[in-house]
Amino acid sequence: MRRLVMVIVALSATGCHQLPETSQVGGHDLTDLKARGDNYVSTNAREYAITGRAHAELPGNIDDLVGEARGQALQKAVDRHLMTVSRSVRKHIDSVLSQFNNGVTGEKASYFTYFRRGESQSSQNLDILSDGRVGYDFRLDFVGSVYLMSKLAPGRGQTRRFDVDIVDYNGQVSETIGVNVQGSEAKDAFPRYAELFEDGVLDIGIHFGGDYNEERFDLETAKWLVGVLLDGDWTHPTVKEFDDLKIDSGPFKRTIEIEGGDVTVELHISHSDMVEPADEALLSDAIKLSLATRDIVLYSGHAGENSGFIMDYQPRHEIRASEFATLPMANKYQIYLMDGCRTYRTYIRDIMANPTKTFDNVDIVTTINTTPFSAGFQLIWEFIYWMTLTNDEGRHLPLSWKAILRGVNRPVFKSVHYGVHGIANNPQLNPNGSTDVACTPCAQDSDCGAGGNLCLGYGGGGMCGVACTHDTACGDGYRCARLIDDPELFYLPKQCVRRNYACQ
Predict the structure, then answer these.
(1) How far apart are CA 418 and CA 341, in angstroms?
(2) Which residue, 90, 164, 234, 364, has most beta carbons within 10 Å?
(3) Beta strand 120-122 with 133-144: parallel, antiparallel or unpaired?
(4) How far is CA 75 from CA 24, 54, 134, 359, in A?
């Protein structure tokens, strides 16, 4: 860990591929996006939706149009007006929050907002009025600070209301509308560890994108990772130092005992300097293989609006985000970690356009703002170490998603906001099993079944708890409680305990 901290302090450049941002309008069904829903959690960010009804001017020739041509003209007018609504809402939010940010703007502001690509959605619920306007429903999705609603619309409840002046391109207020803002109700959950471990192999692909900076931080990150593996308990038949690592070297391996059985962890690594310029396609082939077969896939590189996986810059070789929809992806549970600047904005929508992936079989970690390369070091460390944490008895200690993310959403990276999409259907009780042992007698943790369940001291003696993430998962008479205040023991899961602290 000491070595990791030293490298993080040394590298602070951002891993961003900057491209112009655009605000795209599209879609007619406010619930049609696979990526939408209460399925995103972070330790320092939250998703929100703003809904309302606005009115656009009817096209001048609307009375001359019929059928499909009339419908297209109406939708075009709505879509064009929705851009004005989106701009006005965002300007209003920025104005309200600016007074609480103490002059700080941009990504380092305490109360920030970030609207992803295609955040504006209009419906077909159109209402033509006698005054020459057409009314329509709209929805704007964005992510922001956890406590943003308390500043934007003070009050109580999951839904708050405020008024917005809709200002046209000439600076004139066309109307004032009331809008509702609602925060996501997504609850913390566990990764699906049992599915990752069930075949006895946890295979991970880590793919470093190329870097245009003179310092070549991509290579520094890859060298650091190989050094950590070689200094640890990982083995490799041919790689004894970084320069030995080739595109066809195969994985680093280690074996761990999890719940009484051996699990082999295989770690495959690729970076841009592994191949000659004429063989750039081998880099994209490597990440395509990971997407199609492996349990965990991590892309660490430059990212940006409409960017995909930028595998190299000398020469440039890239899998564009628009290609994600047709890439072979495994029809099994996977975890994708998209580590680069603003992967929240583009990558989720394009990955979820792939017919093989739904949030029943993938969790996706993204970033909201620009991310320094040093945060990427930390992310790799957190996932290699904490995903496979076991005690001396081989009992796996399942960390929830929030417990894992707190390791990268740290005060030292104040403007960095990692979050995970896809947790709505993930387990909130111990994913390793033994979820029915609450309040059974015990003398030690191993008496309580799967790792993560702890033997708790009740008044009548030791009784088992069950690892959990939220009260609702524990059932009647129980709550999900954190029992240990020591921050160094954050990896010990919360436990289902009796509300009256007495087992029947």
Answers:
(1) 10
(2) 364
(3) antiparallel
(4) 14, 13, 10, 30
- Residue showing tokens 């809904």: 51
- Say if residues 226 and 319 touch (Cβ distance below 8 Å): no
User: What is the pLDDT at residue 103?
Assistant: 82
Report DSSP state, residue 399. Answer: P
Cα(211)–Cα(65) distance, integer angstroms: 53
Stretch(es) of the chain classified as CATH 3.40.50: 193-421
* Cβ–Cβ < 8 Å for 225, 245: no
Burial class of residue 338, CB neighbours in 10 A (0-12, 13-18, 19+): buried
User: For residue 313, what are the contacts with CB-CB under 8 A and spacing of at least 6?
Assistant: 210, 211, 212, 272
Among candidates 396, 326, 324, 340, which has minimal Cα distance to 373? 340
At residue 371, φ and ψ (nearest 5 deg) are -125, 130
- The third-level CATH classification (topology) of the domain covering 193-421 is Rossmann fold (3.40.50)
Structure tokens at 228: 């950590």
Q: What is the pTM of this model?
A: 0.89
For strands 467-468 and 461-464, give the pairing.
Answer: unpaired
Beta strand pairing call for 201-208 and 261-270: parallel
Indicate the SS3 state at residue 436: coil
Instruction: Specify whether the CB–CB gap between 15 and 139 falls below 8 A.
Output: no
Contact 134, 53 (CB under 8 A): no
The stretches in the chain having pLDDT less than 70 are: 1-37, 116-120, 124, 305
Q: What is the pLDDT of residues 439-471, one digit of tens each?
A: 999 999 999 999 999 999 998 789 999 999 999
Hey, what amino acid is at 89? V
Burial (CB count within 10 angstroms: exposed 0-12, middle 13-18, buried 19+), residue 239? buried
